Amino acid sequence: MARHYLLPGGFRVCLRLPRIGDREGVRRLCGRHDLELDELELARLVGFDPRRRLVICATGLIGSAETVLGVGAIEIAADADPWLLVIDDRAEGLGSLLADALLGRAQALRRARAA
């Protein structure tokens, strides 16, 4: 699912499913937005149940290090909206890109399951 996009501010980001190695990056990103995740919440976010939930992580290079710039989550249930959308302030335009990706992918998953 990994795809690369160029944001209006010049950042090149990759939207992909989260990996175990993203835990600390997600924790730091959420912490900068005063959203403290305990270990269980973080584990459920990074290791989500794909039958019920979709989580997408946005990463990009800051300096020479891959950095988590956004994370979003949506339930696969009909007509659900993203319940988590945390974006790094440096990534202008990422919020709408990530929200659209969550909504579109969740809708595609629902259609595939209905078929």
What would your notes on this structure say?
There is one protein chain. The protein has a 5-stranded antiparallel sheet with strand order 1-2-3-4-5. The model has no long low-confidence stretch (mean pLDDT 91). β4 and β5 form a beta hairpin. By secondary structure, the protein is α+β, with helices and mostly antiparallel strands. It is built from 3 helices and 5 strands; from the N terminus they run ββααβββα.
Note the gap between the termini.
Answer: 21 Å
Radius of gyration, in Å, reads 14 Å
Q: SSE string, helix = H, strand = E?
A: EEHHEEEH
Secondary-structure-derived class: alpha+beta
Percentage of residues in helical conformation: 25-40%
Which characteristics define this entry?
115 residues; alpha+beta; five-stranded antiparallel β-sheet; 3 helices; 5 strands; globular
Could you give the topology of this structure?
Layout: E1 3-6, E2 12-16, H1 23-32, H2 39-46, E3 53-62, E4 65-75, E5 84-87, H3 94-114
